[in-house]
Amino acid sequence: MTGIFKSIKFKVNSRLTDAQKAFLRLLYNIIKTPGDFMRHLNKFNYDRNVLRKVEVNFTPPLFVATITNNCNLRCPTCLYLLENPNKFNATYIALDKFQEVLEKYNTQNKAEVIFLSGGEPLLHPQFGQLIDICKKHHFIIKTSTNGILVKNKIDSLLKLSYVNVSLDSHDYDSYEKYRGGTAEQFDLVMEGLKILREKGCYFGISYVLSTENLSEVDKMIKLAEEIRPNVVYLHNINPNGCEQYKPLVLQDRDTKLFLEKISKRTDYPFDLIMSVVFDNDSPLFRQAKCVQPWLLFSFNEKGDISYCCHLSHDVNIGNAFAGYNFNSPKMVGFRKDIIGGRIPKSCLYCQRRFMGKEFGHFDSRAGKWFIFGNC
């Protein structure tokens, strides 16, 4: 029955305009949870203005808090390290500053989700207290971790709605190659994943794919079947600044064969989401516009703002500790560039530019693929 309803929803959505979808979502959400009226109305205003107006009159629905820029891995594909090899150091957001930001910017609980990010967020010595602050402000709380400290932080992680573990490997040799970690760290990650499953935490694992490791996907899936997460994400790499790894494109024969193979199978024991596969020759690849400068309020441990979750924070964009209002000149200018189709080089192969255009989503309850498309 779940599959039937999802199929109907998918077909109906494909025939509606964005404005119609936004209005129907508003009605549905108000009926479902009338107590969250302000949050639903805020999301409706976002839907009406995203990619249309350079100045926003709503609270970004998703907060991304980089609570530390410290990290205990040095992954060769890390965009931050490719930009600045000395990026990571031991700085952490202060509890009082974090509390201050949430009180100031989430009035009437308009925002819906807060994503605790890093660096490696579990390195924050007061990670549990940050979660408690988020809960006081009625956020849905999510995080992404490299998994090394899951065992140490399990009590805090069980309070979250979702935990993602960035795995990018299927054994120690691939872990060393793609994550730069040690055998001891790999064992800790495996132990942490087992604990998440045993404790009933809703969690996912993610793999970053490139032409370099495409032949290893079968081994990744096999490991995921042993781990049994709720969700598996297969991300397409953003290679900006890194010549060693190339993204998956439809012009590549091996990529086409991979997509055919992975979409034929309908017995995965978890939801499986395959991100966009690029078609360099398509109009959509040249024209797709990223929603993140509207969707996100992204700040780091110093309060500095970033345009999205992948670009660096910069005090010149704004500072959450010093009067940022979602519409600084730099942010407005960036939104104007996005609307005008002026895409920065670093964004060209970013999968987040194509949100809603993923290759497909396998629903394990329905036992069925829902194919979105490629660009």
**Low-pLDDT runs:** none
Beta-strand fraction estimate: 15-25%
Residue-averaged pLDDT? 91
Q: Give helix % range.
A: 25-40%
- The CATH topology label of the domain at 56-164 and 180-201 and 291-342 is TIM Barrel
Major beta sheet, strand line-up? 10-9-8-1-2-3-4-5-6-7-11-12
Based on secondary structure, the structural category is alpha/beta
Helical stretch tally: 14
How does this structure look, described?
The chain is an alpha/beta fold and 375 residues long. Helix content is 37%, strand content 16%. It has 14 helices and twelve strands. The protein has a twelve-stranded mixed beta sheet with strand order 10-9-8-1-2-3-4-5-6-7-11-12, with helices on both faces. α2 packs antiparallel against α3 (37-49) and α5 runs parallel beside α6. The mean pLDDT is 91.
